[in-house]
Specification:
about 170 residues, alpha+beta, Jelly Rolls, four-stranded antiparallel β-sheet, 4 helices, disordered C terminus
Length: about 170
């Protein structure tokens, strides 16, 4: 199969923006192509996915605790951190139509990171930047909800060891 066909879905994912074509090609070569039938589970809440999934085409739905679902768009990456570390999925995603996906296996990705340290540096920088953005957004929400120090919480001690006050930053 033409490598460009496998690289195209990677280019749709923000995490891969800025990678060199050779790095994208190396990732694409190890990607497993999967087709899910309607009703198949792509990932299951509480289970290790063993790698990330990129939805290439089809309709999938993230199931909420209340049974309601949220549509998963083609180009979405699921279980992203599972590419790098053992982690449990935080949701169940089910195919609603035939879904074509690429699975980026953790072991294959870790081997690529060991072979290409600049790839490891790239992902560390991207993920660190995104975590900083989340922290900045939480600070903005904190200020909006009550200004500086709004995330301070008063405790009513049940026993003598409980703190009088706790500050969350």
């Amino acid at each position: 199969m033409n490598t460009e066909v496998l690289i195209a879905p990677l280019r749709q994912v923000a995490l891969f923006e800025g990678l060199a074509p050779s790095q994208l090609a190396a990732i694409a070569k190890t990607a497993e192509r999967i087709v899910f039938k309607p009703g198949d589970t792509l990932i299951r809440d509480g289970r290790d996915a063993g790698g990330a999934l990129i939805v290439v085409s089809g309709d999938a739905e993230r199931l909420g605790l209340d049974g309601a679902g949220a549509r998963i768009e083609p180009g979405s990456m699921l279980a992203e951190m599972s590419m790098f570390v053992d982690t449990e999925a935080s949701a169940t995603v089910v195919a609603r139509s035939p879904v074509r996906a690429l699975r980026l296996d953790r072991q294959a990705m870790l081997e690529q990171l060991a072979t290409d340290p600049s790839l490891a540096d790239y992902f560390v920088a991207r993920i660190s930047s995104r975590l900083k953005d989340v922290a900045d957004e939480l600070r903005r929400v904190d200020r909006t909800l009550g200004g500086e120090g709004a995330m301070e919480a008063e405790w009513s001690p049940v026993d003598g060891d409980a703190p009088e006050r706790s500050v969350l930053h």
